[in-house]
Every structure is written in C-alpha cells, then in structure tokens.
Design goal:
Length: 194
C-alpha cells in the first residue's frame, strides 16, 4: 500500500511540473499561401486549433516558445508588407503570450529545441517532426493543407540518400555548432570558443 501512495505522489508531482513546449510559426500558428500575383507568401490568418493548444499549455503553467526557421532580418519587411505578418506582430494581434521567440535562420530547429529543453514540439515540417521524434521530443503535426503524409515521405526518401550525394547536390547537412540560445534567436558563444 505504501508503494501505491509513493507512486501516486510521484505521478502528481510530475503532473504539476512545468514543461517546455515549442511551436513553429508558419503553417502551425499562422496560415499562409503562395500568391502568384504577389510572387510571395500571403498571410491568411491564424491556425486557431494550434493557438488554442498554445493557450492551454500557458494556462497549465508550461513554458512556451515559438521556434521558427524564418530569417530574423526579414521581419521588418514583413511588418511593412500589406499581405505579410511578422512573428511578434501576429502574436500581439492575437493576444498570444509566449516566453520567447527564436529564429533558426533557415536551419533545422532541433539544436534550438534541445537547448531549450523542449518536451513537446508542434510543427508542419516533416524534417523538424522527424528530428524531434529521433531526440525523444513528443512531436505534434500541424497539417492544415492535408499534405503532411506526402511531405514526410519525401523527407524520408531524402534521409535515406547517402550524405555524399546530398552534398554533391548542394544540400550539406546543417553544421554542428556549440552555442547557447537566448530569446529572439541570439547566439551566446561558449567561453571555449572565444
């Protein structure tokens, strides 16, 4: 009986601990499409089910970050474009409170997710979903256009190709680096690297 109570106490303790939960931005929190007229991405609005998931995590006391592969230098262009939304602008417009926004500058998100200690990641990109799962991060798929299965199959076939073939095709693997992240994707170099 004592063991049962100890297990129950441990379970309750684990349920009360805050988790780190991460969300992709494009096609996870925000929806968009390629506009032929604009020759650019056009903002369509919020992805309401995932915004509600984010709000539930915040209400539960979880630490919530947005991790996007966007390039931060283009955020000012998104603010000025009539059919675009910058990440912080979108969050403010929809009253979404997060603990930080990280830009991975076009690189896979996995290093950032691991450094943040993410336990659950929400994304529409099969590469980021597969990387999360390979690193024991629970991955929640955003599939607003119903094409995730095809995209994942394509990603898996790329992963099956030898690295040399990828490099010959101009697709080198993401360079490994030793750095820590802080909000807004800024890198802090380790003392050893200075």
């Amino acid at each position: 009986m004592k063991l049962l109570f100890e297990n129950w106490r441990q379970y309750l303790k684990e349920q009360n601990e805050s988790r780190v939960v991460t969300f992709d931005f494009d096609d996870t929190l925000s929806l968009s499409h390629w506009g032929e007229e604009e020759d650019d991405w056009v903002h369509d609005g919020p992805n309401t089910p995932f915004i509600e998931k984010l709000r539930k995590h915040k209400a539960a006391g979880d630490t919530v970050y947005v991790v996007t592969s966007r390039l931060e230098k283009y955020e000012s262009d998104a603010l000025e474009g009539p059919n675009k939304k910058a990440v912080q602008e979108f969050l403010d417009d929809h009253g979404i409170d997060v603990d930080g926004v990280y830009f991975t500058e076009g690189q896979p998100k996995i290093e950032t997710l691991l450094q943040l200690g993410s336990t659950i990641h929400h994304d529409d990109d099969p590469g980021d979903i597969l990387d999360s799962r390979e690193n024991d991060i629970e991955a929640i798929i955003s599939d607003p256009y119903g094409d995730y299965g095809e995209l994942e199959a394509s990603e898996l076939s790329l992963r099956d190709e030898p690295q040399e073939e990828l490099e010959e095709a101009g697709m080198p693997p993401a360079p490994g680096s030793n750095f820590n992240m802080q909000p807004n994707g800024k890198k802090i170099m380790d003392d050893k690297e200075e």
